[in-house]
Write a structure and sequence with these properties.
Length: 143
């Protein structure tokens, strides 16, 4: 399980150094892809397989499902970290998430999320719904 929020930087070669607490839990091979709200998702091998299985089960006759699967996998990259815990984020994914230098790496249970630092600050402070409102909605869902 991944949790916590860590400030990091992307170096001039496009490499991100993963927080050590995440490196210890992440599989040797992992996957980075487009997330929602212009961030990136990182999945370990097991979670990637679980999500891939769910996506494969979607009906190819459903246009929205086809489009989502297409875009999700087109942006995906299989990768691994070097001995210092760094991995290269491909340029197309850095462009998608507007990642230039300062980023926030967040653990969200089964995945890691990477945000541009300013975008995360804006999102977390100016969300359309307050944390309390979200908690209330989760109670409605049985959480």
């Amino acid at each position: 399980m991944f949790f916590g929020e860590y400030d990091h930087s992307i170096d001039p070669k496009g490499r991100l150094n993963l927080p050590s607490k995440f490196r210890d839990k992440l599989s040797e091979v992992f996957y980075v892809t487009k997330g929602f709200d212009q961030c990136l998702f990182i999945y370990d091998e097991q979670e990637w397989g679980n999500f891939e299985t769910k996506l494969k089960a979607l009906p190819v006759t459903d246009k929205n499902a086809r489009n989502f699967v297409r875009l999700f996998f087109a942006g995906a990259q299989e990768t691994s970290a070097d001995k210092q815990g760094r991995f290269v984020i491909p340029q197309n994914l850095r462009d998608y998430a507007h990642l230039e230098k300062d980023v926030v790496v967040i653990g969200v249970s089964s995945r890691i999320v990477v945000w541009d630092k300013e975008a995360w600050a804006h999102y977390s402070q100016n969300s359309d719904v307050s944390y309390d409102d979200l908690a209330e909605r989760m109670a409605e869902l049985g959480i």
